[in-house]
Amino acid sequence: MAEGLTPRGQDFSRWYNEVVRKAQLADYAPVRGCMVIRPYGYALWENIREELDERFKETGHENAYFPLFIPISFLEKEAEHVEGFSPELAVVTHGGGKELEESLAVRPTSEAVIGPMYARWIQSYRDLPVLINQWANVVRWEMRPRLFLRTTEFLWQEGHTAHATRREAEAEIQRMLDVYADFAENMAAIPVFKGRKSKRETFPGAAATYSIEAMMGDGRALQAATSHDFGQDFARAFDITFQDADGELRHCWTTSWGLSTRFIGAIVMVHGDDRGLILPPRLAPIQVVIVPIWKDEEARSAVLEAVRKIEAELDGLSVKVDDRENFTPGYKFNEWELRGAPLRIEIGPRDVAARQAVLARRDVPGREGKEIVPLDNLSDEVRRTLDAIQQALYQRAQQFRDSRTAEPEDYAAFTDAVAEGFARAWWCGGAACEQKVKDETTATIRCIPFEQPAAGGKCIVCGKSAEQQVIFARAY
Amino acid sequence: MAEGLTPRGQDFSRWYNEVVRKAQLADYAPVRGCMVIRPYGYALWENIREELDERFKETGHENAYFPLFIPISFLEKEAEHVEGFSPELAVVTHGGGKELEESLAVRPTSEAVIGPMYARWIQSYRDLPVLINQWANVVRWEMRPRLFLRTTEFLWQEGHTAHATRREAEAEIQRMLDVYADFAENMAAIPVFKGRKSKRETFPGAAATYSIEAMMGDGRALQAATSHDFGQDFARAFDITFQDADGELRHCWTTSWGLSTRFIGAIVMVHGDDRGLILPPRLAPIQVVIVPIWKDEEARSAVLEAVRKIEAELDGLSVKVDDRENFTPGYKFNEWELRGAPLRIEIGPRDVAARQAVLARRDVPGREGKEIVPLDNLSDEVRRTLDAIQQALYQRAQQFRDSRTAEPEDYAAFTDAVAEGFARAWWCGGAACEQKVKDETTATIRCIPFEQPAAGGKCIVCGKSAEQQVIFARAY
User: Fold this and answer.
1) Is residue A95 domain-resident?
2) Among the three residues A400, A419, A442, which one is the final residue of a domain in this structure?
3) What is the pLDDT of residues B108-127, one digit of tens each?
């Protein structure tokens, strides 16, 4: 266990804050509710961004940039939208030394400033679909800030698309949800449930919201990404119309979808342990850390020479050689375990003489995760081991999630289940039952999974007949 | 000349606005002073960002992210800094539905919010240097907005570094100025003067500001990037100290340096012509556009087959095949000339039969810039021609700048010179002479170039002895 790190089992929330700060992912800013993303955390975000951006471009999207400021009157064009976001707005009332005639909201999301542009750009069915994504900062005033999870300002991407038909819009919404799920599972090693949100949890102004939901290391849920179906509501509010091939003027069907720096919080909470972070190899800013070990000057140069050769052979991987003086190997081991580098290579004079090195897996700490590997095989073995770590992290997260996902038969078992993890249970669809659960357990409906049993059942709350199983959980 | 495009010589400013909008680089936002960067313009920014980011990382810098909001009291810690930026601030007075106890500025630049973090992170000389860059949006209230050149919100990067010694800080400032100059000249094909700013033009709070200055197509100057020397002033204001190897507590030496989306305006204004944009091949989002030409269905499939082969051979280049129906080849030629794609490939049925294609250079419009190339040599010839275009754009810009840079002998010749371009002239260093030039000609001192004649001269304004030549120009 890392020195000074609160054990996860003792106080998960405290463990989380300590890991994020000690691993130098982020720090509290001297501005209320805001965070500073430090270079190591930002490098992780850059890797997330690069992977997602590639997937967005492969699915036909382009990036653009829209203004930070949104006149309040724009937000008011869609009634539910402004109602949902008003309590969270940061408002600019003065600019250039004068009080403004109309106050400007700092964007909490960009539908209301993108809508008028789409209305201007889209004339004909030939202009459709419009498939645009934006990487940006957004602001939602936060009373109980937590690094990455809830901060007044955060970074995200928001896709905004406009289509000629409902079918195309719906296909887009599912496509992007699949992109998110693929990214979460294959890159971040985080298994997710895909599903629709209940009306209560739907994005303000959307006809439907879909999400991917992941289980954190304490059994709570985190919404990792969302995809929204606006039907034609926003197109009506912002007058986004097109002339169809038959000459008719129609409203577009629009969508939006987003993933934020919150996702970094999920990576920390899914994979970390009592020693600190564990980063999935496919997203880790440093995939392999090499710690050379020496006592005297002669050994030093022989070891460093071997290290340079290893580094060259690991071309294409992100490798860090920690050759700092004045720090012991043990100190370095602890530090890189805290910071979650997936694989460590240790090499000392005797290893050099024996033409070998030690590989130490971060996901299997201690002796059990160590392997002595001949230098001749090292490059292959490192790559193989990184793949194995990636798979192992996913399997461990999935096993944990399965072990904490119950299908309770009655309400008593249900309340026990949501105290520990996810409860997959029948729900009649009634807002009253949803509210009762929230009031009594603080759990909410995370999603209505796409995969449903063939037959119906009885609502876990009221016992009336129910057509859908939903996932209840306490959520971040 | 593109249809509906005002000729440059007739009204440069109007030409600029039309090109930026018609080429779909950017559009005015429905928010005062703000712009929307459209996908084509944003793709250009992404290329700029990627090139710079690589150079920043090669010189040892890491990216991070600091908060958008800066408490006004932070800005006030450095007197000149707050005085310089106060008139341009956007101010958040309400958050989360309540009036704030302390108003927050939307960052006009981030020294004042980064300073307190560096004060927290830096303890010992071992923590130095800190070499961090941030890609972000910033806001400076703008009364006379122009797309890319002056907008209330713009995108930029800002490097912020802290060093143990004056010498290291000064080396950093010059290193980054060199990075900018190298980028401008070798990637954007824009020749620049490197030099120091006069006190009047120095960044608020800086001990010295250095810049690269470019000449636009109308002879005016544009400051393309800056690098600031803060000495120990900001370190004193924000208490950024370190314990040196001798145990003494010392203040750091800090710097900052930045380049913004304004640079896109420079690319437009340096290279464009009466047909529209001309993008330098090394930054162009679309380097090669292929326009297949056919009349009947049979020809179409033969031509498209040849086009697919060409596209495959141009692997590694950014190629767009414009196979849109319902648009004539002539329409497409005009459109891609307007949008500045450096090289066009035209291919029709007779070309396919003759195993050839036509290359048309954007920088040499009309027959003179066309070349018939055998398909067997096409890939090499395209790459060679793109290089030739890159070089030609740079040479043309340099020749233009040289032809408009005068070394006037007297004040009358000087005023003529700054009406047309740059005047390189002796300056006594007096603020009164600088002010007189500004009042009478609107020209300002763009920079005091590093390269200076061996002997001194006489001030172009007052005739007193002068030790430095400076570049005067009217500026964007």
Assistant:
1) yes
2) A400
3) 999 999 999 999 999 999 99
- Residue B258 pLDDT more than 80? yes
Can you give the CATH number for the domain in which A173 is found? 3.30.930.10
pLDDT at A67: 98
Select the residue of A62, A89, A96 nearest B141 (Cβ to Cβ): A96
| Contact list, B104 vs chain A (CB under 8 Å) | 31, 90
Q: Residue B430 belongs to a domain with what CATH number?
A: 3.30.110.30
Residue A282, in any domain of the structure: no
**Position B3 pLDDT exceeds 70:** no
Say how far apart CA A390 and CA A190 lie, in whole Å.
Answer: 10
Same domain? B76 vs B195: yes
Q: Are residues A53 and A99 in the same domain?
A: yes
Helix axes B262-271, B12-22, angle to 10 degrees: 110
Complex-level ipTM: 0.96
* Global pTM value: 0.96
Q: Residue B322 sits in a domain of what CATH number?
A: 3.40.50.800
Residue B7 lies in a domain: no
Question: Any bridge partners for residue A234, and if so which?
Answer: none
Shared-domain flag, residues B450 and B466: yes
Partner A, chain B 57-96, Cβ-Cβ below 8 Å: 62-71, 74, 86-96
Q: Domain end: B400, B422, B439, which one?
A: B400
Of A36, A64, A103, the CB nearest to B65: A36
Q: Is residue A216 domain-shared with residue A353, that is, in the same domain?
A: no
- pLDDT classification of A326: cutoffs 50, 70, 90: confident
Same domain as B252, residue B104? yes
Structural domain includes residue A365: yes
Query: Comparing A309 with B2, which gets the higher pLDDT?
Result: A309
Assess whether A357 and A292 both reside in one domain: yes
Q: Which residue out of A83, A85, A92, A238 would a mutagenesis test of the B interface target, given it has the greatest number of B Cβ atoms within 10 Å?
A: A92
Residue carrying the six token digits 């290193």: B175
Same domain, B319 and B192: no
Q: How many domains does chain A have?
A: 3
**Is any Cβ of chain B less than 8 angstroms from the Cβ of A145?**
no
Same domain, A328 and A436: no
Residue of A nearest to B68 (CA): A153
Residues of B in contact with A34 (CB under 8 A): 67-69
Query: What residue numbers bound the domain in which A297 lies?
Result: 288-400
